[in-house]
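Researcher: We're teaching a course module on how sequence relates to structure. For the next exercise, students receive a sequence and then see the predicted structure as tokens, so they can try to spot secondary structure elements on their own. Here is the exercise chain.
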Amino acid sequence: MCGRYAATASPDELVEEFDISFMAEEMPQVCAPRYNIAPTDEVPAVLERERDGGITRKLVPLRWGLVPSWAKAPGATMINARVETVTQKPAYRKAASTRRCLLPALGYYEWRPEERPGSARPVKQPYFLRGAADLFVMAGLYEFWRGPDGWLASTTIITTDAADDLGWVHDRMPMTVPRERWSDWLDPGLTDGEAAVGMLVTPPGLSPVKVSRAVSTVGNDGPELIAPVA
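Model: And here is the predicted structure for the students to work with:
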């Protein structure tokens, strides 16, 4: 799974990279460099919606942890959607057909149990996984939920089995959309969820780096969290 990640690209960088036509006014705050994004946090997302008879590409904030439209209350458990069942499960099926997004990141964290000198039990050691570039674009879905205080827009990250060389860290990993398929993935006119999911790939060239256990505490943040440790 992917339970924490980092995102540092500025609104201007994302507007240029994704050819954004509309940016929500909250984005300068949402796009502040963050190195410990956790479930229920607002995250930057790229999506396309119909507007004035055309399609507009937007940069908007989404709450991480998808809330289905039929949910009784918001939860924090649907942070990942398994690609193997994403077009079948009621919580994700409709979103896979019509509400797909891109989630820009720097990289993500995973934890694995490791023996530690002086400790009677294994400790959960975090690793930060990132590619060669400074933009790691995860495949996501989004949904709208209406509650007593208004509308809530939320998102989830699509995951798959980890590549063979990364399975020692964790058995799951986020999926990405090739740059040349970004427009196809975002297109709300594509309503074949199976065809859309077929565009997704496992991210190549990820390098896991052992990092400080300070990232395990949600309140901690800063670039030191992705710095390698011995």
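Model: If you want an answer key for the exercise: The longest strand covers residues 136-147. Helices lie at 11-18, 27-30, 93-98, 182-186, 193-197.
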